[in-house]
Design brief:
The complex is a heterotrimer of chains A (287), B (758) and C (152). Chain B is built from 19 helices and 28 strands. Chain B is of the alpha+beta class. The longest helix of chain B is centred in the C-terminal third of the chain and has 28 residues, at 528-555. Classes of the chains: A alpha+beta (287), B alpha+beta (758), C alpha+beta (152). Chains in contact: A-B, A-C, B-C.
Chain lengths: 287, 758, 152
Amino acid sequence: MSDLNYWEPGNLLEAVSILANLGDQVRPLAGGTDLLVKMKKGPINWRGIVNIKGLTELKGINYEGLTITIGALTQISSLIENPLVRIHFPVLVEAARSLGTPQVRNLATIGGNLCNASPAADVALVLLMYEARLLIIGPSGSRKVPVQEFYVGPSQTVLQQGELLTAIEMDLPPLNSKGVFYKHGKRKSHEIALVNVAVLLTPQPGTKQIRARIAVGAVASTPLRIKDAEDSLTDSLATLSAFEQAAELAKQAVNPIDDVRSTASYRKQMVGVLTRRALVEAWGGEL
Amino acid sequence: MSYSVVGHSLPRVDAREKVSGSALYTGDMVLPHMLVGKVLRSPYAHAKVIRIDTSKAKQLPGVKLVLTYEDTPKILWNSAGFPPSPGAILVEDQYILTNTPLYVGDGIAAVAAVDEETATQALELIEVEYEVLPAVVSMEQALAEGAPRLHDAENNTYGHTPVVIGDVEAGFAEADYVFEDTYQVPKVNQVSMEPCGVSMAAPDMDGRVTIWTSTQMPHLVRRITAHALGLKIGQVRIIKPSVGGAFGSRLGVVNEPISALLAMKVGQPVMLKYSREEAFLATESRHPMTMTLKTGMKKDGTFTARQFTSYIDGGAYATHTPSLAGPVAGWFLAMYKSPNIKVDNYSVYTNATQCGAFRGYGNPQVVFAVESQMDDIAEKLGIDPLELRLKNHPCAGEVWMWSGWAIESCGLEESIASGAKAIGWTEKRNNGRISQGVKKRGVGMGYMMHVSGARPMLHETSAAIIKINEDGSANLNFSNSDVGTGSATSLSQIAAEELGIPFNEVMISKMSDTDVNGFDIGSHASRQIYSGGNAVKKAATMAKEQLLVMAAELLDIPVEGLEVKEGRVWARDDSSKSLSVAEISHAAHFGSHGHQFIGAVSEEPPGNPPVYAAQFAEVEVDTETGIIEVIRVVAAHDVGTAVNPASVEGQIQGAVQQGIGYALTEDYRIDLGTGKPLNSNLSDYKILTSVDMPQIETILVQAASETGPFGAKSVGESGLVATAAAIANAVYDAIGIRFKELPMTPERVLTALQNKDQ
Amino acid sequence: MTPISLQINGETYLVNVPIKKTLLDVLREDLALTGTKKGCDSGECGACTVLMDGKPVNSCLILAVDAVGKQISTIEGIGGIMELDPIQEALVAHGAIQCGYCTPGIVMTAKALLDSNPHPTEKEVREGITGNLCRCTGYVKVVEAIMDVSRR
């Protein structure tokens, strides 16, 4: 039985070169928590693994001004422990903590998780809420793609042959913003979300008006920002009925499916319930 | 009664080897020239193999053997681990491999190769042409008019067990109220952490095969495997090492005939280890059942008639199903006193994985239905639910209809009283429905009775041999079927207590070996302590008697004047006269006689003293999401004497995890069109993790039995029997909705809440 | 086949492995370190938990070639034949071991947990071991044992 081919490129150039030349015949290996499951399940039509964990260019969490840059090879558990992330992007920590199990979080990387492109992914959803930008390097150079444009469908991203996600860039959210993340499941850990919701509420300075970002996952082929629901809250006052209306719009905007984990009808209803609850919690004050 | 060894939470005899990783489980073992076995499984729920070509597989380097149906003995067998007994209805309808697969996963071929990868590739090279046949993958499909017949069973129904006591129609006529409800429960899997289905078979030069296997029933697996292979029983030797949990999934043959057949034909040892997916797909889970209960009550809360009709989905092969129908009837009719009772249980064939034994053996299903209806009855009659149980359950001294024998002891009153107090029954009951918030809380309870062994339905043979070594220590030769239950430890405690020597001087045979240990039925029906303990205690008594005879000779004191305590024989009236057991044993070995004290017993225990339990649950229902959270469980169990209290508590706590899963999150599902599994993995088949568990309080009520060793009864299965009912009743208390189908998923709860509002 | 050097329990092992072979399979098959168990082979049960540079990971999700250069600890490296580790002693004393199949994984996870957080709350212990599935104990006595060690 033939074995797999294996490369451990020492730098980004080498890695991109191998991936560009061999394309679909190889898979990049980061944490391995998705790749190895797929490899074992089979059947696989690829023949080689490019272990990118040696690429220092993809490591580290840095900030400059109001922008944080998270290396794609950052392990989920390191993300959770990083003081910058904890202080400035607490909702990302919550999403990361809800992923898998502690053992999986010690292996899985943020880059690998994003590129796995599950429509129910928790971290991707929160990055959508934080309006992150994904830094990609490939044979034709580098580009930045807003996370909103990164996902094309289930397990499908805009990454081209030879391209690697190298880092995630996020700006500090507007002053006094509050974010909330809910992952809805039948167990409290070990779950793939039936529905997940991430909401960022920003009070407009000097007024009682708010703006909102509403992201919903596991109810479409990719995680989604619900524009109708967000627009309904733009510069509106924070009231329970405004939140209920936004939640109803979010619910109307989604078309989830039936699968072994849940039903379309249930998921749709949960979008409404959880969006409303998330907005209320994010507001925090009296309504 | 207090004892020096029994009743103490002593550390388990196998704890240190398990915690250090040195305990050997079947899959850890290696023999020289060992091959890896793998099974090719049907992708269709119902088909005929038109053509099967194994030539390419055989030519693959590293493949030593490929077998199909053609190569297997044409002997039909039944996998259920039961001896020939009045209650064992063993319909023999399975071959080792088949050419007419009856479920997705049915074994078509088997290979033995040098490693797993080669074996996997060999499976891919086997060419099979199937004629796909119409399949009935659910009971609904199987019972529909014109459905294709499996095993030529009319209406796919077989094994009807009717029970008639009195006249239920007359009973309904004189009732003040008649209740009729139908309940449905799903297929759930044992999910032992060691995936079910691992055996290593090694042939010898004398026509025998030794099989190391993770099993609950060494001697019965020996019988069935020998039969399936066309061998004499003595040609098969079963050895059971450490086992990673069973819960009924290993209550009989799993894959031993396949590994043994491969090994004997290829002439080398073969290890056959099922993956987690195969454990879901190809081993026996709990029977889904549809149960209709029709109950007649007088307004004073007594029964005039109880009727139970059930359809039991047994899957593609009979295995346990017709035998289970008897206990199902027993669980039902024995729970409450009624002059008129009628039971009809129908076994149904479906094109799905066959079902077998899972902790409780029909009782979890029955009690969910009975105890759910009891709460509805209590509400309608305006009687307190606890009162209603207390009024109608069979008591000590009365005949227990499961066995036909008198009940030796009953701790239910104390269980209900202490459990109710612990959960805060009076304070919390009836508050849910009137509370204002989105999250509503409620409390509920369920009661149950269970067996200590399966007499008289099944034989309960156990054998024990105790030999006292010349240093005063004792070897306990027992067919040790401890699969994690702790029986090895508790049996050692019984031996030590009876012999009068310290606990750590008793060494039980760690591996069960059918060549060496006396015939023991195995680990099922919560029998190890009551039945095994009975044999162990008697063997100890026998060895002790011989010890005392020798001691009498050495001390010149009659036997009646002597006792054994803490490893010494003492003169009752003169504490200066004593000898250590070691001294006496040494003298026996090497003195004038030259013999060893050996006690050997093989017998059935005298009866079957039932155990009782009352489980209480507090739940919180989120009425906007339908999520039910179990906040607390109080499990009050009458186990008789608790030989090892920590072990008993552990058994109950683990069972409660399974009971909550049954109520809320576990459901093994297949596609209703193709029969293919939908959640044969641990992501989508959801067992509770450490953060999902509620607070559990266990209360041990020790209503000692008359005939059990030191008053012991049982606990193995009881812990999950009443849990689902307690939770369903608590949910009703919280939101006023009665769920008659498990699991109570958020989708079902939300739909019900919305329907209620309309 | 690729020759690699693995650091396990402070010892160096040289093995020849296929690329696609997992660390779990190399431990169990090539090195006869069978204390680490295979419960699902897909990172869902935690029975294969080992420590990699001190952190609990699923060894079934790591290629052996990818474990080169890391410090791997398995159950065989915890405690010894003369004396058990306090976590192991506590599990034994509390009756927290039934079938024992999840136990080595739990010991490894608990060890890492207490090394990084010597006095966790019960909630932190439960969250820490949530990646270790157990079907026998309901986790009750396991949590009690770990809390007991943490209080010393």
